[in-house]
């Protein structure tokens, strides 16, 4: 098991390492002069632009820039933002708890709603329950996050006035989490149904039924347990999608997370902040996938030992 | 990556579709029309195309002219979907928006399909180190998620609808590369491929004459489903202000313009969102239908 975890961590490290190369290259493939693009809107003389170029190290060959970037990264220095001149890591760390809270709350909703719907549909395969659940799921998959968010906002915050429009406390977390959670529940319902149908068709479930075990026992001890394995395996990717979706949903509800800031950074062409965000995002997603893989291996011994 | 076979966006898009590319087109169409999702999907997508093509004729008002009508007018007989804060007709803007939406779908999917197909073919065919390095890279990019890759591209190119289409196209390349790769691996193991290799077929012949036609059915399914992803992503970017710019009648952008007026003019929010949702639903259903039509075994599920 230790070896397995080490392997997964190493793979995550490779991902983050490739991300560092990607973000270094990012500034270099910008058509035109990145310094001029970044500072173009400020009042700057050519001398000042040159000074900035030297300060950011953009006057040096790319491999030296990369080496220096890695060196600073190892000391936890992600550079300073252009707008506001603050340490990028501080900005990200201050806002990350907000994004994490949103992502976790949404994941809980997505798993609870999506898995039960998918399980029910698979169990009642071919009936109107199945058809209804799958129609609901495909409509859910097709709903844009931001539209669902606006509809919920219109209904619960503006018309019924049960919930706040924005804020920052847990009450204002409900709508964004519901938006992101329901959108992902639809995806999860489709996956769960398809995974459970595979399980229901397998010999050991048929055997369990044939030997006269009660329906509940067959469902919980045999089918659900092994059906969970492929679904857990998909949760890593699901989490990545949730984090991606959070970027949009945060903007709908003015939720002050990392994603909202990332959009502002793209607008302002604040490259240090964009680089920091991509690297941060890649790291979080990579770590989440390690956790999911370990959980997966824990559930299914075949993974650990192969 | 432990999620090789299942992608969250479509329960089993990765699963290779049976190689029935050479089946008669007529029986394919018949099979497509027999499945409820295929039929509904085809109708929705057909309607979208008709709206896009005939927008200049059927749109009751000019989509861009300001103050063409009263401002913030609720839906009436003259303005079926109401007017926006500039007095523009929402229905006309949505009809013209269909043109942009189709453009987004074609350009974005075109980019990701072409590049992903080539990458997947090369990686799957070459095997060994080339394959390992390429697919590892694809996996890493895939784990960055599409929205982050698209944001990075926009940070490079700058904002705008055309740039957003290209960014979305690039962002999905890893997904198409993975799908192609997995199909190529299956096809490579089949007897016909071994026979062709044994008969001395060259690399190009093996790739383009033998592998490519058998990858196409799966990619048609994935591409159709991919249009829905692309439309969603583009609308999302426009909603964030990174895609379409005023006064373009893009649906996501229209939604974003409605945000401050939701309680005063909910129609500005409801109809463009409905347009996006129905379009995306149409391509999702069509994709499901095409898959069923190409692979009858799926129909029992």
TrEMBL record, chain A:
Alphabetized UniProt keyword annotations: Cell membrane, Membrane, Transmembrane, Transmembrane helix, Transport
GO-annotated biological processes: transmembrane transport
Annotated ABC transmembrane type-1 domain residues: 96-296
Cellular component, GO annotation: plasma membrane
TM annotation in the entry: 100-123, 135-158, 170-189, 228-253, 273-299
The organism's place on the tree of life at top rank: Bacteria
PROSITE patterns listed in its UniProt record: ABC_TM1
Record CDD domains: TM_PBP2
Cell compartments where the protein resides: Cell membrane
Membrane-topology annotation of the record: Multi-pass membrane protein
Primary site of residence: membrane
InterPro entries: BPD_transp_1_N, MetI-like, MetI-like_sf
UniProt-listed Pfam families: BPD_transp_1, BPD_transp_1_N
Family: Belongs to the binding-protein-dependent transport system permease family.
Designated name of the protein: Peptide/nickel transport system permease protein
Native species: Albimonas pacifica
UniProtKB/TrEMBL annotation, chain B:
Topology within the bilayer: Multi-pass membrane protein
Regions that span the bilayer: 39-59, 100-127, 147-171, 265-286
A Gene Ontology cellular-component term: plasma membrane
Top-level lineage group: Bacteria
Subcellular location: Cell membrane
Annotated GO biological process: transmembrane transport
InterPro entries membership: ABC_transport_permease, BP-dependent_transpt_permease, MetI-like, MetI-like_sf, OppC_N
Family stated for the protein in its record: Belongs to the binding-protein-dependent transport system permease family.
Protein name per its UniProtKB record: Peptide/nickel transport system permease protein
Lineage of the species this protein comes from: Bacteria, Pseudomonadati, Pseudomonadota, Alphaproteobacteria, Rhodobacterales
């Amino acid at each position: 098991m230790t070896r397995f975890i080490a392997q997964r961590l190493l793979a995550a490290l490779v991902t983050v390492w490739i991300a560092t190369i990607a973000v270094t290259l990012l500034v270099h493939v910008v058509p035109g002069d990145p310094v001029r693009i970044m500072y173009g809107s400020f009042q700057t003389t050519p001398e000042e632009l040159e000074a900035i170029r030297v300060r950011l190290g953009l006057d040096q060959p790319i491999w030296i820039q990369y080496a220096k970037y890695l060196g600073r990264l190892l000391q936890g220095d992600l550079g300073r933002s252009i707008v506001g001149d603050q340490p990028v890591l501080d900005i990200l760390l201050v806002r990350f708890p907000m994004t994490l809270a949103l992502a976790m709350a949404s994941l809980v909703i997505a798993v609870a709603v999506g898995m039960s719907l998918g399980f029910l549909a698979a169990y009642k395969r071919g009936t109107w329950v199945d058809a209804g659940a799958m129609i609901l799921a495909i409509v859910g998959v097709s709903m844009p996050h931001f539209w669902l968010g606006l509809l919920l906002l219109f209904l619960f915050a503006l018309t019924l006035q049960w919930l706040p429009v924005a804020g920052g406390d847990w009450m204002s977390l409900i709508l964004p989490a519901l938006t992101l959670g329901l959108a992902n529940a639809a995806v999860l319902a489709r996956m769960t149904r398809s995974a459970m149908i595979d399980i229901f068709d397998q010999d050991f479930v048929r055997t369990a039924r044939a030997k006269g075990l009660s329906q509940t026992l067959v469902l919980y001890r045999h089918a659900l347990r092994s059906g969970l394995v492929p679904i857990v395996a998909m949760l890593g990717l699901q989490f990545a999608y949730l984090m991606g979706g959070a970027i949009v949903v945060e903007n709908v509800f003015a939720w002050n997370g990392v994603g909202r800031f990332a959009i502002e950074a793209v607008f302002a062409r604040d490259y240090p902040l964009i680089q920091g965000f991509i690297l941060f995002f890649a790291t979080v997603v990579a770590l989440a996938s390690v956790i999911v893989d370990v959980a997966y291996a824990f559930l299914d011994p075949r993974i650990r030992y192969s | 990556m432990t999620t090789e076979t299942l992608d969250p966006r479509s329960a089993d898009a990765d699963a290779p579709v049976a190689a029935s590319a050479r089946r008669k087109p007529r029986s394919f169409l018949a099979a497509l029309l027999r499945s409820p999702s295929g039929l509904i999907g085809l109708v929705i997508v057909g309607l979208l195309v008709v709206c896009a093509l005939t927008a200049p004729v059927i749109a009751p008002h000019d989509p861009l002219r300001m103050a063409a009508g009263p401002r913030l007018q609720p839906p009436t007989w003259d303005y079926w979907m109401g007017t926006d804060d500039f007095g523009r007709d929402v229905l006309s803007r949505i009809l013209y928006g269909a043109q942009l939406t189709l453009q987004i779908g074609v350009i974005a999917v075109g980019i990701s399909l072409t590049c992903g197909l080539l990458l997947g073919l090369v990686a799957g065919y070459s095997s060994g180190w080339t394959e390992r390095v390429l697919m590892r890279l694809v996996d890493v990019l895939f784990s960055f998620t599409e929205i982050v890759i698209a944001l990075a591209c926009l940070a490079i190119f700058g904002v705008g609808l055309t740039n957003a289409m290209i960014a979305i196209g690039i962002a999905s390349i890893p997904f198409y590369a993975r799908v192609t790769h997995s199909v190529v691996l299956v096809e490579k193991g089949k007897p016909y491929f071994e026979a062709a290799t044994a008969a001395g077929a060259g690399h190009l012949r093996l790739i383009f004459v033998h592998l490519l036609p058998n990858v196409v059915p799966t990619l048609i399914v994935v591409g159709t489903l991919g249009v829905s992803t692309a439309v969603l992503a583009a609308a999302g970017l426009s909603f964030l202000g990174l895609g379409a710019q005023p006064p373009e009648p893009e649906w996501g952008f229209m939604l974003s313009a409605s945000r401050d007026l939701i309680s005063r003019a909910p129609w500005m929010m409801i109809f463009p969102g409905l347009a996006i949702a129905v379009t995306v639903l149409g391509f999702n259903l069509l994709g499901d239908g095409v898959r069923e039509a190409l692979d009858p075994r799926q129909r029992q599920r």
